[in-house]
Fold this protein.
Amino acid sequence: MKICFLGCGNIAQAIINGLLQSGILSSDIACIERNEQRVESLKMQNLKIIELESLASMDFDLIMLAVKPKDALSAEQSISKLAPKANTLSLVAGIGIEKYSRPNAIVRAMPNTACAFRKGVTALYAEDQNSSAFKTANNLFSKVGHVLALQNEDEMHRFTSIIGSGQAFLFKVLNIYLQELEKIAITNEAAAKSMFQDFISSLSDSFSQEQNFESLINKIKSPGGTTQAGLESLEKNNLDKILQDAFQAAEDRSIEISNEQ
């Protein structure tokens, strides 16, 4: 599988890292990137750095469009002119397939940065989900985690808010936990971070054994205890609504980005 990334920001780099771990050869990944600092980092991974014009003479199974939304449509037009037969996959948030010059040739993907650890969750959408491009994209993202094929492109906005942006929301919450732990372990910051790493890991282990949050909560809390008091405080302060509002704000912004193009 030969892949070219047009733009190599955070999400592209996460996918590249996961693909390399999966066994994809660095020689099979090409990058088009203008940022000199990123170029040096990509070279250290033995990735090929090419110019945009090289697309006219090179064959790739997928060209991954990973630029900023404001640059996406012009970049896709360049791909269309230079490599009219290429399969193009858009990693750009908020821009619907119909906005591109060749909607039938576009696959949309919304992955998250967990792809770097081969634990990503990626939503895929194409008008023709039986196409070779869609099957290639599905195969590629299966190498770096889980794939969810969407039947309706509008669902991409909600997926973006929950999975794409949602990681950052959880990191924000977990950072509060870490700060509180560091207040207790003030003399040993390294130990606090090590403890916290196991604390987070244990949450995943618990969920893998029993995939029911209410049951997991009930195993920790006791009537009239400290956990019960904390949970009541969270309910009183509408934790559910706070997170739901964050999801809605991210979804609304995704829709705004689409309408701005």
Q: What stands out?
A: The chain has ten helices and eight strands. The mean pLDDT is 94. The radius of gyration is 21 Å.
